Amino acid sequence: MDFEVIGTIANIEVIAVGRSIRELPRLRRVYGTGRWRKIKGVATVRLDDGLLCKAELHWYEAHGIGKREMKIQRFIT
User: Fold this and answer.
1) Domain tally, the chain
2) Is the pTM above the cut of 0.85?
3) Higher model confidence: residue 2 or residue 17?
4) Which residues contact 67 (CB under 8 A, 6 or more apart)?
5) Are the C-beta atoms of 50 and 33 separated by less than 8 Å?
6) Tens of pLDDT along 4-48?
7) Which of 20, 38, 41, 75 has its CA 20 to 30 A from that of 52?
8) Sheet holding 52-62: strands in order across?
């Protein structure tokens, strides 16, 4: 599902850091070494069909590399 984040991401919270991340070897292989963190937050998103809705987002982030693999975890009513 493709989407676009509208505005800012709020309620940002770190879920896991370093070796607590299950996907760490793959992240390092694909994007490079760094202090990887798995993060979640809430934002308004625009879906492919133009629908605007509020969703909880999860993504990986490392200093100097940036946000990677952002995905919608669930929709918030």
Assistant:
1) 1
2) yes
3) 17
4) 59, 60, 61
5) no
6) 999 999 999 999 999 999 999 999 999 999 999 999 999 999 999
7) 38
8) 3-17, 37-47, 52-62, 66-76
Whether 17 and 39 have beta carbons less than 8 Å apart is answered as: no
Residue range(s) defining the domain that contains residue 42: 3-76
- Banded model confidence at residue 75, pLDDT cuts 50, 70, 90: very high
The CA–CA distances, whole Å, from 63 to 19, 37, 45, 77 equal 16, 9, 24, 32
Q: Is 29 helix (H, G, I), strand (E, B) or coil?
A: helix
Q: Residues in the chain, how many?
A: 77
Neighbouring CB atoms inside 10 A of 25's CB total 10
